[in-house]
Amino acid sequence: MSDRPLTSVGRTKRRHDAVLKTTGAARYTADITLPGMLHAKVLRSPHAHARIVSLDASRARATPGVRAVLTRDELGETPGYGFFIKDQPVVARDRVRYAGDVVAAVAADDEAAALAALAVIDVVYEELPPLPDVPAALAEDAPELFPGDKPPGIVPPYGTGASGHLWPRPNVCYEFRYATGSEEVWEGCDHVFEDTFAFSRMNHFHLEPFVTVADVRGDRVELWSSTQNPFPLRKELARVLATDESRVRVHVPFVGGGFGAKNNCKTEPVAALLSRMAGRPVRYCLTTEEAFLTLSQHAALLRVRTGVMADGTFVARDSEILLDAGAYTDGSPLVAEKACYRIPGPYRWEHVNSTCSAVMTTTTPAGPYRGFGATQATWASESQVDMIARRLGMDPYALRVKNLKGLGEPFMPGDSGIDSDLVQGLDAVADELGYHERPAHPHRGMGLAIGFKDGGGVNKPAQARVKVTATGEVYVNAGSVEMGQGISTALCQVAAEVLGVPAERVTYAAIDTDTTPWDQGTNASSGMVVTGRAVQLAAEDARDRVLAFAASRLGCAPEALELVDWGVRKDGGETVPLPSLVAPVFGGTGYEFTGEGFFKAPNSAEAPLESPCVFWEIGWAGAEVEVDPDTGKVTVLKLVASGDVGRAVNKLVCRGQDEGSALMGYAQALFEEMRYDNGVLVNGEALEYRVPMAEDLPGQFVSITQEQGHGPGPFGSKGAGEGPMVPVAAAVANAVHDAVGARVRTLPLTPERVFHALRESAAAPAE
């Protein structure tokens, strides 16, 4: 990282979207209105699993105000959609696979007319056995959700030690495996511990609903969408609609939260097909309750087997992860590879062998969720690390420090080196928590955990363009979506720093796939490092063009000049305003200087995931809790969370990301859980789905934004916003164990689960 003083980067700057959002002037997709716009609603299956015997929509088509009705009869050859596997139909064809599956869609003059039409669609179902959870789906006599020929899919290329498999056995859509080292090391272990854990399913609970406005006229498809990945969405929608990608135009206004849910197709195919049928724009906006039926986080069952020496040295780890993928695959293969690869944690091992299977069940489809894969893996890994320490009579902090990888040490053979000092980060949290000086207190305890994930996306590229007007106004054009995380502000600060202008003079251009440079998507904390590097390079390109022009007018070499607030200074002397140089050459119409940038981490056949990790996103968490032994209620007295951002481009934005992330982990630890009864969701509405409220927050909450300075992004930055979420649940469970000697292995840590763990601990013989 450069040690030079920075004028814009690192200083607290007001967010570019602050005034718009605080005054209510910001426009979201839900605010888009087009002339003649229709409104869409869908009919959903009441059954978890059933065959569609017959479907009659004739009365719906005759309903006043109805302009288009979409059922399986209108689908024709329209293909399904998904990430790796194209298995989700726009509307159900032969069967429904979960309660909430879309059976038909209606576009009408208003929502009331659309709902009236849905009420008169006649569907006859033949109920089939549900597969409400992973054990039911893997049972020998379980029916297959996709019998016969399987939906088409791909296995991406992997490197050393990694492999992927499509449909390896019934109701398993994808399996990822990773192994390194020799199995023989197990024989030399002094102790082998095996433990199982269960991870709960959360709803993304973003405030802005899933919403699309589509306008399909002739051979042009134009839509406004609350999406995190406009360019992959454009590609997938073109495939579904059987049209050229160049015919699809995607606009992305502000997005009101996504947390991974708003990737790939959600509301877009229904809106686009209805618009094509009706010849008019269609708005399709889901309710909060429908969001629960659209996408969720993966529940998981995890088995971890670990071999250690008597002094606590880690030797070997075998892991088996079963993800509940729900009824359609969505991003499950991606989550499977991440969970499997991350479960060893940031520790040294002689041997690792991990398998992760994505299992199909008759529940809401599961997909990417903040920290995806790492949350499930860290819950099991960091819980077991604590359990092993206590079995060996060691302090959990000391066991971690003994085995943590060092700065620069490769995570796995062929991958990049760890770019945070893991012990330094752990010490920051432990010291703030008072971990080493804690006094004995009945029913109180402390716990630590380390969250670990690869950041920046696998093999992810991004382009950017920076334009500077003749008067020094700067426009950053890039594909990172502003969804509350502050990326538009941070990218503008990068350009401002390179060009030597105040950040207030830099504008982030609206995203439009017809004009915005290509970007793979706003996910995996990639905005700052991947898109940020593209913006930095584009700004440097624009700067070089400006300096070359100025040098030609001043009769000197470009190296002799520097940009200072849209002027050029030669050898530290007087600053010459650039407009005075531009006008004589280009006249009153002025001129715009444009720079282009592209960034992508290099591929490597040796890297397990095809390319070395761009950066490692680390989170550390510590919790102090008090447990009521009579009720099992857990009270978090203090929560400390920290992430290493390398170097903060905007410290306030980084802090907000870390704190929001940590509190989502806190919600996972104690509150949130989608509950099913024989495959039917029973708490899928805002009033029944338990999220933490203000009175539920920890007594003390401290966030520590570390700037260790080893990041590969602009000015030494790293991505942020996921790391501090990942370890919180394990830290709270570890603190509960420290307080009362009871280990809870299933999330969330409800009073009932803690109470039963206390009783089991009291009845069990000492380990």
From TrEMBL:
Annotated SMART domains: Ald_Xan_dh_C (SM01008)
Classification via InterPro entries: Ald_Oxase/Xan_DH_a/b, Ald_Oxase/Xan_DH_a/b_sf, Ald_Oxase/xanthine_DH-like, AldOxase/xan_DH_MoCoBD1, AldOxase/xan_DH_MoCoBD2, AldOxase/xan_DH_Mopterin-bd_sf
Pfam family, one: Ald_Xan_dh_C
Segments forming domain Aldehyde oxidase/xanthine dehydrogenase a/b hammerhead: 23-129
Signal peptide: none
PANTHER family in the cross-refs: XANTHINE DEHYDROGENASE, XANTHINE DEHYDROGENASE SUBUNIT D-RELATED
Protein name: Xanthine dehydrogenase family protein
